[in-house]
Design a protein that fits this description.
- Helices cover 36% and strands 12% of the residues.
- It has 384 residues and is α+β, with helices and mostly antiparallel strands.
- The protein has one domain (5-383).
- Strands 2-5-9-6 form a four-stranded antiparallel β-sheet, sandwiched between helices. Strands 1-10 form a two-stranded antiparallel sheet. Strands 3-4 form a two-stranded antiparallel ribbon.
- Helix 3 (60-68) packs across helix 12 and helix 5 packs across helix 8 (206-229).
- Mean pLDDT is 92; it is low at 7-11.
Length: 384
């Protein structure tokens, strides 16, 4: 860790040195290596946004990709790409799409470029928090009641906020504004169906993704509204506002893998994440390490299996392949231009890297849990 996280504490009082020390400690515990040329990521450079404004990545295939989510592009030949498969995938996205589309006229796309707008604002009367540990346990229990499979809490860390959001009317930058005084981020995880993920690459597999997005939209909104009803700020967020992967790792939900995903103990890489920014007093979780980084150092199945060769072999580095990657973080980084180009040709998302990951197992089974146990030891090469 070489950069100074204190300069990203804009949402906190300038004398909040405890937060600065926690950030540095959590970076070390999570395995983050952040260099002096770190820059917050601009969401306009996200690969999906670039597909609308950047001639370098626009193509007939990319238009067909987005049209297929409205059933306006012809299905591909082959199992997993029939009209029934696309029909199931698109139906699974229904709730997430309803949220995303309702503010388009105002330049807002909730859950993807903008957070989910609250139905009811913050209650005028604030319920006092007498015991932070009890409140944290209650929030986690309610998160699971509302549908989350995983939940963790971390400090509000401005480094992972997008430097700008995107106005969907013209694809130009707009400010990434949040209420003042936010202190914590609740990160929610939703496991994806093991059997559907096993059909990647196909439109059928995309139903697992759509179900994840639709479920997280509902869960994040419900939990955020509960917190607002207590008199505290709560901003529900999906793909928008901030990079969720570092927040999920800091919240103790998993480790970062070569395939660019958070590898969790419960589901491996088969998880969708959402988040809630809040000022509700909560206890934070610590990053966890169970051997994923060491395993990925000797495993390259995801990179070997990637059709467009978008995933890296070799060790992590801090050289992003193009503008669709954050600068100043030493990690495994995909070439998103190659990745999205392949998605566009499929007219559906590809997650072969998720499917072939050795951690992609059904952990209800004893053999899967045994693999996870030994994958975190010096026997990792043997189990691989």
């Amino acid at each position: 860790m070489t950069s100074d996280p204190e300069r990203y504490l804009a949402n906190r009082p300038p004398d909040d040195r405890d937060a600065w020390r926690r950030f540095a400690d959590d970076d070390r515990a999570a395995g983050f290596v952040i260099t002096d040329d770190f820059e917050r990521f601009n969401q306009r450079d996200d690969m999906f946004n670039r597909a609308f404004w950047d001639p370098h990545v626009q193509s007939e295939h990319s238009r067909d990709f987005f049209n297929s989510y409205r059933m306006n592009a012809l299905p591909r030949a082959g199992d997993g790409f029939t009209q029934k498969d696309f029909a199931l995938r698109n139906a699974a996205w229904t709730i997430a799409d309803e949220y995303a589309d309702r503010g388009n006229a105002e330049g807002v796309r909730e859950g993807f470029q903008d957070p989910l707008a609250p139905r009811v604002g913050v209650a005028a009367t604030r319920v006092p928090v007498d015991d932070v540990a009890v409140t944290t346990a209650e929030v986690k229990r309610l998160a699971r009641l509302f549908g989350a499979d995983l939940v963790g809490v971390t400090d509000f860390d401005e480094r992972w906020l997008y430097s700008f959001r995107v106005d969907v009317r013209n694809l130009e930058e707009k400010p990434n504004e949040l209420p003042p005084g936010l202190s914590h981020v609740i990160v929610l995880g939703h496991g994806m169906d093991h059997d559907l993920v096993g059909t990647y690459p196909s439109a059928l597999a995309g139903a697992a993704v759509g179900m994840g997005y639709s479920q997280e939209a509902v869960t994040a909104q419900q939990l955020a509204q509960y917190i607002r009803n207590l008199g505290y700020q709560a901003v529900a967020s999906m793909n928008d506002t901030a990079l969720v992967i570092p927040l999920a790792i800091k919240a103790g939900l998993g480790e970062y893998g070569r395939n660019q995903m958070v590898i969790t103990r419960e589901f491996g890489p088969r998880v969708r994440f959402s988040k809630i920014f809040t000022d509700l007093p909560l206890n934070t979780d610590r990053p966890v390490r169970f051997g994923v980084e060491a395993f990925c150092n000797v495993c390259s199945r995801c990179a070997d299996a990637c059709p467009p060769k978008a995933l890296p072999h070799g060790p992590p580095d801090d050289q992003p392949p193009n503008r669709s990657a954050i600068r100043g973080v030493r990690k495994w980084t995909a070439d998103c231009e190659k990745c999205f180009g392949y998605w566009a040709k499929l007219r559906s998302d590809c997650a072969i890297c998720m499917r072939v990951c050795p951690y992609n197992r059904d952990y209800r089974r004893f053999g899967a849990r045994l693999f996870r146990r030994f994958a975190g030891t010096r026997l990792r090469r043997l189990v691989l």
